[in-house]
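Bug #77: duplicate submission created two jobs. Keeping one. Sequence:
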Amino acid sequence: MKRVSPKEAKALMEDGWTYLDVRSEPEFQAGHPAGALNIPLLNAGPVGLSPNPDFVRVVTSVFATDAKIVVGCKSGGRSLNAAGILERSGYASIVDQRCGFGGARDAQGQVIERGWLDENLPVETGRPAGRAYEYLLKK
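Kept job's structure:
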């Protein structure tokens, strides 16, 4: 699987790829790459994050298997997992944005690769109509 930097992900989006943010709804609402769609791999709950049982179903209702998708999250872990799940589900054009929205960090919490936000790429907040999970879940 190909892994790209935030700037490479932005260039792919300018070429017609769609950014799929797999973070939880509250994370997405707080800030996300401009134009991104949100389908959480994990849902936020009272005791933390838990697997979203509807992840693959919602992705397949939104995207054809030949869609060009850049998958991103907070720091690269969830997106790599989600990209693997999507490849195993028949998606052929999947790219993982390796350091996410907030950047990749080492064991001490130091940023080792800047994420989308720190690269000063376009950001939105809130629940954009048609792209927030609450809308996509209904498809």
